[in-house]
């Protein structure tokens, strides 16, 4: 395993600037390599056929929008380019570049070493001016960036532009004296990065992270004087800014969100908080909001809603189990039909056994789906994927479905 060089000298005197690795000569090689690793001729064939492919009595339907978004493609391109530009340097990555096992495995094979993302350890203290650190698509907390700059390591920043839009919004909230109510998962990389920006440039801003509509109603009950600040802190004490005092810091609030949340849920949170502020103050001047849902996330959710209007026997959602935007596609699908969240095609064990991730149990489970057993009966299988899932994994899933239905790869 590669570890950062040990430095016995004092800290570097100057900060290293962020590095632009998107040189035309580099990107030409990168795009060829990325295409070889992740693209799929079968997926493109089905897309060109209006998203549907029928062979015999088996039909595969693909959502209109699925898989890699621009932000993910950019992050992967930059990581590949970093290895080409810094061919002889140690390259490190804060956590995972995106939430997909296959993509992160490829980076490991390129000797890009993952650093801890939940908390910094001695590896960060050992970074040198000869090292390169990649910031993932989710971004990273400001303390991590400051530490890397302090060590003088070069930074290749792949943070998604949509995430940075949220950062600008919460910084403005802090500047104007508004506390950020962040709709997201408190332990998610993106939300942690956003929360650090909600402190503002002077580090005197505040935030509270809420996940569900139940959380929202609890917060609104406090705003309307129905519960105490002690009760609020008992529930959210691990998801608030340092020094957070509800009696002071919930007078003026602004809603922001992790970019991969359900848009309808974020909008409902905005509505409920606005209503509570209006009931408390008789006006809404102390409430702000801004639509910060990622466009690609919304496109994939909308495409699935459209897809669900058509007949399907089951839905397969392909992607990393720790992918927020993918899990929301599962939530949408399972409201309408049997939906299976699979990491890759290997989880399709047979016509009667599917290994999939259960969102409630937060673990893989084995399920039987007997409607696939009768090869004489027609079946329609829908497939979609989150923004971090490459097409080669979707292709493998398509091939596996047809294989289980007695159709060879040559026929596809």
Can you tell me about this structure?
The structure is a single chain. The chain has 412 residues and is α/β, with parallel strands linked by helices. It is built from 15 helices and 15 strands. Strands 1-2-15-11-12 form a five-stranded mixed sheet, with helices on both faces. It has a four-stranded parallel sheet with strand order 4-3-5-6, with helices on both faces. Strands 8-7-9-10 form a four-stranded parallel sheet, with helices on both faces. The protein is globular. Residues 1-13 have low confidence and may be disordered.
How do the strands and helices of this protein lay out in sequence?
Blueprint: H1 24-38, H2 41-48, E1 52-55, E2 58-62, H3 70-85, E3 91-94, H4 101-109, E4 112-115, H5 122-125, E5 132-135, H6 142-151, E6 154-157, H7 161-175, E7 179-183, H8 189-198, E8 207-210, H9 213-223, H10 229-236, H11 246-249, E9 253-257, H12 263-281, E10 287-289, H13 295-307, E11 314-318, H14 324-334, E12 339-342, E13 354-358, E14 363-367, E15 379-385, H15 391-404
Parallel strand pairs: 2-15, 3-4, 3-5, 5-6, 7-8, 7-9, 9-10, 11-12, 11-15
Antiparallel strand pairs: 1-2, 13-14
Helix pairs in contact: 1-3, 7-8, 9-12, 13-14
């Amino acid at each position: 395993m590669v570890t950062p060089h040990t430095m016995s000298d004092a800290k570097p005197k100057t900060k290293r600037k962020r590095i632009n690795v998107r040189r035309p000569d580099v990107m030409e090689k990168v795009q060829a390599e990325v295409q070889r690793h992740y693209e799929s001729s079968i997926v493109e064939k089905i897309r060109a056929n209006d998203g549907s492919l029928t062979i015999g009595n088996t039909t595969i339907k693909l959502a209109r929008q699925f898989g890699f978004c621009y932000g993910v493609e950019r992050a992967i391109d930059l990581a590949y380019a970093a290895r080409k530009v810094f061919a002889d340097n140690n390259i490190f990555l804060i956590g995972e570049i995106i939430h997909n096992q296959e993509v992160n495995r490829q980076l490991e094979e390129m000797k890009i070493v993952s650093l801890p993302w939940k908390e910094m350890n001695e590896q960060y203290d050992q970074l040198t001016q000869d090292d390169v650190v990649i910031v993932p698509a989710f971004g990273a907390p400001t303390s991590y960036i400051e530490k890397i700059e302090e060590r003088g390591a070069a930074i290749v920043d792949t943070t998604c532009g949509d995430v940075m839009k949220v950062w600008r919004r919460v910084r403005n909230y802090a500047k104007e004296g508004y506390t950020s109510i962040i709709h997201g998962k408190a332990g998610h990389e993106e939300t942690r990065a956003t929360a650090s920006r909600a402190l503002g440039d002077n580090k005197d801003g505040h935030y509270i992270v809420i996940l569900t509509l139940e959380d929202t109603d609890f917060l609104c009950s406090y705003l309307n004087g129905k519960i105490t600040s002690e009760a609020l802190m008992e529930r959210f004490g691990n998801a608030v800014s340092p020094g957070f005092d509800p009696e002071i810091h919930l007078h003026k609030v602004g809603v922001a969100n992790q970019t991969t949340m359900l848009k309808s849920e974020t909008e409902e949170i905005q509505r409920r908080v606005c209503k509570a502020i209006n009931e408390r103050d008789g006006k809404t001047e102390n409430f702000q909001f801004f639509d910060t849902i990622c466009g690609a996330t919304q496109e994939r959710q909308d495409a699935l809603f459209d897809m669900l209007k058509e007949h399907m026997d089951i839905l397969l959602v392909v992607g990393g189990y720790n992918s927020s935007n993918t899990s929301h596609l599962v939530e949408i699908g399972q409201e309408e039909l049997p939906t299976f969240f699979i990491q890759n095609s290997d989880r399709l064990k047979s016509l009667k056994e599917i290994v999939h991730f259960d969102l409630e149990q937060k673990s893989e489970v084995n399920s039987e789906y007997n409607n696939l057993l009768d090869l004489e009966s027609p079946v329609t299988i829908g497939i979609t994927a989150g923004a971090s899932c490459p097409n080669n994994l979707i292709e493998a899933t398509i091939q596996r479905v047809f294989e289980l239905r007695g159709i060879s790869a040559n026929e596809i």
